[in-house]
Structure formats: C-alpha cells, structure tokens
Amino acid sequence: MSRPIPEVNAGSTADIAFLLLIFFLVTTTMGADSGLQRRLPPMPDENQKVEDIKINRRNTFIVKISERDGILAGGQVIDISQLKDLAVEFLSNPNNLENLPEREEKFIEGFGKFAVSKGVISLQNTRGTSYNVYLKVQNELVKAVNEVRDEFAMQNFGKKYAALTEDEQRICRDAVPQNISEAEPKDIKK
User: Fold this and answer.
1) Is this model's pTM higher than 0.85 or not?
2) Per-residue DSSP letter, 125
3) Across the strands, what pairs with 182?
C-alpha cells in the first residue's frame, strides 16, 4: 500500500517573499550622491555663432595639478594651504594692481553700478592627478569665492552671504561671479 506524499502549500511562501521584498524596499536607505556642486552654462542655441573670446592674461589665474599631485598656481609651486589665499587676492585685487584682474563697471539690478572683476580661475590637471587632491583644490577655489562673497556681503549688507535673503545673494553672485574654468585633463603619456 502506498502512502500519499503530502504537498507543501507554496502560495503563502510567495506572499511572504513579496512582503519581505516590500519591507526591505521601504526600510533601506540609499546613500546620497556626493560630488561637485556646479552650475553649468546653458546649452548653446543651435543657430548661435561660435565666437572665440579673448581673455587678457592678467585676468587669468592658472592652477595646474601635476600627475604627482604637485600644485602650480600663479606661476609658483605652492602647498594646498596657500591656494585659497592666493585665489582670494586674485579675485578681490584689493590694491588694484596691474598684474591682477581688471574690473568692469556693471549695473546690478537691485544694487546699482559696481566694478566687477573680470578674473577667471583656470584649473588644469593631468589624468594622473589623484581624485583626492583634485577635490581639495576644487574646495579651496570655492572657499576663495565664498570668502570674497562674504566680504562683499559684510560691506554692503552687514551680514555673511549665507544669512542674506535670496535677492541679496543674487546681488552677491552678480558682484562676485564664480568663474572657474576647467580644462580637459591632459594625458602626459602621449
């Protein structure tokens, strides 16, 4: 006499698996993306004429990072700790020196006329540059721009940039633009 083989009810197993899937989807958190916060220029119009813009040499602060993570800024080899101060001096040009960027009188809505620096920071690196040093250099350059914006905000509004209203922050951004140009990394092995 043969005995019937008992069957396992698989319907509830599928329900349990589905509930576990839902549980893990709801309770799991995804890591936040980290990266460089940059405002990209708008896409050019297809019908727009391409123009080469000539930038006066005195208006350019060149920062180079070598494949061995050495930093050359403004024509001199420096340590990362010196970069922010050099960039602040370049952007603000407090003594209106001939070798630092010239200023252009612009009308800023809600503020009036202001002499805005034509300074551009040009960042160049090689493919051998470590990501860690690259990020540190980026951070120092952004700190420099933020420090100059804070100085402008304190002089004109009596408080730091972060404490300003949205309109006041826009005025600061117009008066102290973040002009950081980045060249494509160079491959030195070619």
Assistant:
1) no
2) E
3) 123
Looking at residue 157, its pLDDT comes to 92
**How far is Cα 182 from Cα 170, in angstroms, rounded to an integer?**
23
Positive or negative torsion for Cα 175, 136, 71, 81:
positive
Residue that has been written with the tokens 């040499």 in this structure: 57
Report the alpha-carbon distance of residue 64 to residue 68 in Å, rounded.
11
Question: Do the beta carbons of residue 63 and residue 123 sit within 8 Å?
Answer: yes
pLDDT-derived band at 180 (thresholds 50, 70, 90) equals: confident
- Dump pLDDT digits (tens) for 100-117: 888 888 999 988 999 888
Q: Where are the domains of the chain?
A: 57-182
Report the amino acid identity of residue 139.
N
Whether residue 81 contacts residue 144, with contact meaning beta carbons closer than 8 Å, is answered with no
- Picking from 5, 136, 151, 37, the residue whose alpha carbon sits closest to that of residue 83 is 136
Q: Which residues of 95-121 are buried (b: 16+ CB within 10 A; e: fewer)?
A: eeeeebbeeeeeeeeebeebebbbbbb
Which contiguous run of DSSP H or E holds residue 60? strand 60-65
- Retrieve residue 75's tokens: 């024509």
Residue written as token pair 């297809």: 46
- The number of CA neighbours under 13 Å toward the Cβ of 68 is 4
Q: Coil, strand, or helix at residue 106? A: strand
Sign of CA dihedral 45, 54, 62, 153: negative
